[in-house]
Amino acid sequence: MIAQKPPMGWNSWNTFGTNITEELIFQIADLMAEQGYRERGYEYLVIDDCWSLKQRDENGNLAADPDKFPHGMKAVADYVHAKGLKFGMYSCAGVMTCAGYPSSYDHEFQDAKLFADWGVDFLKYDFCNFPENADCINRYQTMSMALKASGREILFSACNWGREDCWNWMRSIGAHMYRSTGDIFDNFKSFMSIFQSQLKHFCQSGPYCFNDIDMLTVGMYNQGNVAIGKPCTDGEYRMQFSLWCLAGVPLMLGADLRSLNPQMKELLLNRELIAIDQDAECRPPYLVGSQCVGVAVEDKENAVEPLEMVPDQLLTFLKHLSGNEFVIAYYNLFQEQQDITCIFADIGLPYASGYGFSMKDVFTGEDIGVHRDYHTVSVPGHDCRLYRCSLVKCEN
Ligand code: GAL
User: Fold this and answer.
1) What pTM, to 2 d.p., does this model score?
2) What is the pLDDT of residues 26-77, one digit of tens each?
3) Torsion-angle region of residue 83: left (phi > 0), alpha (psi -120 to 50) or beta?
4) Distances 29 to 227, 252, 261, 267 between C-alpha atoms, Å
5) CA 129 from chain center: how many Å?
6) Cβ(10)–Cβ(32) below 8 Å
7) Which of 89, 235, 250, 356 sits most deeply, having the most CB atoms within 10 A of its CB?
8) Are 140 and 93 in contact (CB under 8 A)?
9) DSSP string, 301-312
């Protein structure tokens, strides 16, 4: 069974766009296997758009670009599998991919069979150049059937950018994950708006069919294909990665793993954060409340829009984990350091209950002891703090 937990892996698009080659994919596969990524759960290595020739071959099949993939896609799949990883590829529900390559409209069964023959384990299925009079839901349904008929277990990663309220029907049509937003760009405003836009939909994300809020940009520092706006700081990357983990969504890395700096590698391999993402109960985060401390902050460039869900700029989330454990997470959207307080009565744990939380810092691993009634922490601007908490009885 696939996709019981949010799928994890790496995708070529954010950094490399069209600049993908067999050599690059082999290097990434080596790194994923040798530097701890595979061991932590990052198992899918996915090639995005731009892998094929601009024309189908004489049999009407999609064909790998021999300049980029001289030994064909089966050889790439074999290499990836030999590293203990799973292999993902990309096509599109329209008549051409977003970058103008042939795609699977009216070729669904033929293409799915070809992918299965190559040893593909994951198909990202995009939505560009979709005929105006065609039925979106029906076409995702068709590719879902084609994958099922292909004779191979293939994870269906549907990507229609949230069109037609896709969170309401992607599970019914057999998708294992569904892109619910437009593309991420490597800046604070982009990832915050994406997260906020899906906050009300995460309750529809769970085992076998996860809301996918796009590949991570953590560690990219504006190198690559999705560099727009101000590069992220390390604190902003901590926010991005931990928000994805709180949401329990797929963790698809987008950075060049060959040049990732040690801090970012440590962040992406953080066991506690990954455990929060992969928690068996897959519960969505609960927005405890947001506090506006009344500090006038003129920061138009970083203003997050739309703010329909979250009007203020200090956010506190509670996430229930399995086994009576919880996460309390604080996000400071101001530029300046701020104190953030979680009053436990607001999350159903009043002082009078006699219970408190034993708390551990998710980033440092430090045990910060038992807190009762409330917890306050000072959070640097555009940064976050997360605590893994377990319920404990307190002395009166
Ligand atoms: C977009 C998609 C991106 C990437 C790109 C490739 O539609 O959202 O994630 O796949 O196409 O051209």
Assistant:
1) 0.95
2) 999 999 999 999 999 999 999 999 999 999 999 999 999 999 999 999 999 9
3) alpha
4) 24, 14, 18, 20
5) 24
6) yes
7) 250
8) yes
9) GG--S--SS--S
Query: Does any ligand 1 atom lie closer than 6 A to the CB of residue 279?
Result: no
Distance separating alpha carbons of residues 182 and 197, to the nearest angstrom: 11
Omega cis (within 30) before 306: yes
Q: Is 361 a catalytic residue?
A: no
Q: Is residue 117 annotated as part of the catalytic site, yes or no? A: no
Using CA atoms, how far apart are residues 318 and 304, in angstroms rounded to an integer?
A: 22
Ligand 1 pocket check for 111: Cβ under 6 Å: no
Q: Is the CB–ligand 1 distance for residue 87 below 6 Å?
A: no
Type of residue at 374 = Y
Instruction: Give the type of residue at 346.
Output: D
Question: For the chain, what percentages of helix, strand and coil (3-state, to nearest 5) are there?
Answer: 30, 25, 45
Distance 102 CA to ligand 1 centre (A): 14
How many DSSP H helices and E strands does the chain contain? 10, 16
Confirm if 291 and 314 have CB atoms less than 8 A apart: yes
pLDDT in tens, 366-378: 999 999 999 999 9
User: Residue 304 CA to chain centroid, in angstroms?
Assistant: 19
183 lines ligand 1 (CB under 6 A): yes
Tokens of 200: 């009300």
CB 374 within 8 A of CB 347: no
Strand order of the β-sheet with 314-321 is 286-291, 314-321, 325-332, 383-393, 355-361, 367-371
The CA distance from 123 to 8, in Å, is 14
SS3 state at 85 = coil
**In angstroms, how far is CA 359 from the centroid of its own chain?**
26
Atom number of ligand 1 nearest to Cα 183:
8
- Among protein residues, the one with the nearest Cα to ligand 1's atom 4 is 13
Average pLDDT over residues 219-237: 95
